[in-house]
# Entry
Amino acid sequence: MKVVVLLGAPGAGKGTQAPLLAARLGIPVVATGDLFRAAVRDGTALGLEARRYMDAGQLVPDEITIRLLLERLARPDAGDGVILDGFPRTAVQAAALDTALAARDTSVAAAVLVDVPADELIRRMSGRWVCRGAGHPYHEVSSPPRTPGVCDIDGSELYQRADDQPATIRARMDQQLGALGQVIEHYRTSGVLRTVDGLQSIEAVAGAIDAALAEAGVAAAG
Ligand code: ADP
Ligand code: ADP
# Structure
């Protein structure tokens, strides 16, 4: 089982890179933000609980998040591996992932940090539009869709996330960047951290991720 973690602040470009990388590696993306948004849309108990935190720009509590992630990893399509986008986001989540993978005789193959400075994160989130079908991200200035309001990939409608308004963007940066620092340290200590410059074009970031993964011994499906 090949497990690649994509790390980065909110707005760094994880959701843009994850599907591109999934196509290259031949394994699915598991994005906890997308799983939470699906639960909110379906009106499940977990969705109602998670929404309170998401609307406030806070992290959903570890216990709920870890349970959701482990359920997703147990599904058959995750058997060969996954790209994790947005998990782990705390040191407790990182430790829980290590334990779950150790039980399957494996470990995180690489944790790639997409590094972007704070002012650019705000610009990216403020102009972000995502599709209803699968959450594919666009940017009204730097990465517009071919047809306004429509996803290039699956044709679904684009919308702006409720938590991408200025006040919530600020709250997310304030509340989440500290924990991201701990997750970065977790993977630096275990020796699998790789950092790429996220300020480049989408294509250049994808190339840098490939190079980082090759260095870490993670090969594409071919
Ligand atoms: P994350 O999943 O890390 O929160 P996204 O992938 O949703 O980030 O990207 C945030 C915003 O930045 C989106 O509007 C996206 O289109 C845009 N974006 C992503 N990568 C780049 C890039 N390399 N250059 C410019 N804009 C980008
Ligand atoms: P972004 O990459 O722009 O921060 P996500 O879609 O990954 O957005 O996450 C949206 C929200 O979902 C987060 O602000 C947080 O409230 C919640 N969330 C997602 N993943 C996690 C996680 N691993 N732990 C706690 N909360 C999470």
User: Anything to note?
Assistant: Residues 8, 10-16, 124, 127-128, 137-139, 142-143, 201-202, 205 surround adenosine-5'-diphosphate (ligand 1) (CB under 6 Å).
